[in-house]
Amino acid sequence: MTEDQPSAIGRRRAAAQGEARTAYKERRDEIIAAAAGLFKTHGFRGTSIGQIAEAMNTDRATLYYYVGSKEELFDEVVSDAVRANVARAQAIRDGAGEAPDKLARLVTELMDSYAASYPFLYVFIQENLSHVGEKRSEWSHEMRELNRAYQECVVDIITAGIAEGTVRPVAEPWVLAYGLIGMVGWTNRWFNPTKSDVDAATIGRAYADVVLDGLRAR
To answer: Quick one: DSSP state of residue 193?
Structure first.
C-alpha cells in the first residue's frame, strides 16, 4: 500500500458513508460484529486490524474502505452507547416517580444497553482509559466526562430519595451509586446475550428487585 492509498481509501469511505448505501452499511455492520467478537476474546489492545480483516476473509486494504482503524470502529460504537445511556439516565432523574422506582429503571435499562451493544460496553469497562494514546485523548476525555455524568445522575436520584424519605440512608449516596453501577457492570465477567441461559431483561429485573428491596424505605 502506498502512502497515497490510505487517503484515497479514506475519501471513498467518507463518500460511501455520506451516501448511506444499504450494502455498504450492511457490510460495515458485519465488520463491527466480527471486531466485537475479537475484542471480547483478545481485548481491544490485543486485537489488530489484520485480525479483523482475517475474520472477514478479506484484506486490510478492503477493510480500510469500511473503517479507518480499529480505534475508529470501537470509539464510534462505544460513544453512541455511552451517550445514549447518559441521556436515558438524565431523563429518568428529571422525570416523575419515586427514587427507588427510578433506580430500578436505571438498572434495567443499563443491563439492556449492555446486551444491545455487546460486547463493546463490556470491553470499554475493562479498558484502562489512562492507556489511551494521544490521538484518542479527546475521545478518552469525553468518555470520562460521560461516565461522571452518569454517576452524578445515580447519586442525584439517591440523594433525592434520602431527602424525600423513600431511600434508606444506609451509606453515603456515592457509595450506593457506585455499588449499583458496579453490580450491573460485573456482568461483563459472565453474561453473553447469545449464550446465556438468562436474558438481559430478566437479569435487569432481578437486580432492580434487589435495589427496591434493599433501599426502599419501609
So the answer is: T
Which whole-number Å values give the CA distances from 200 to 37, 117, 138, 197, in the listed order? 18, 12, 32, 10
Q: The CATH number of the domain where 138 resides is what?
A: 1.10.357.10
User: Which of helix, strand or coil describes residue 19?
Assistant: helix
Is residue 52 within 8 Å of 35, Cβ to Cβ?
yes
Asked if residue 193 and residue 87 are part of one domain, the reply reads yes
Q: Which residues are CB-neighbours of 100 under 8 A, at least 6 positions away?
A: 161, 166, 167, 211, 212, 215, 216
How far is C-alpha 118 from the chain's CA centre?
A: 8
Dist. CA 27–CA 14, nearest whole Å? 15
* Alpha carbon distances (Å) from 55 to 35, 65, 104, 117, 163: 8, 16, 39, 20, 54
CA atoms of 154 and 145, how far apart (whole Å) = 15
pLDDT number for residue 194: 87
Rounded to two decimals, the pTM is 0.78
Do 120 and 189 share a domain, yes or no? yes
How do residues 97-130 score in pLDDT, each as one tens digit? 999 999 999 999 999 999 998 888 888 887 765 5
Planar angle of CA 208, 211, 215, nearest 5 degrees: 155
Query: Which domain does 120 fall in, by range?
Result: 75-215
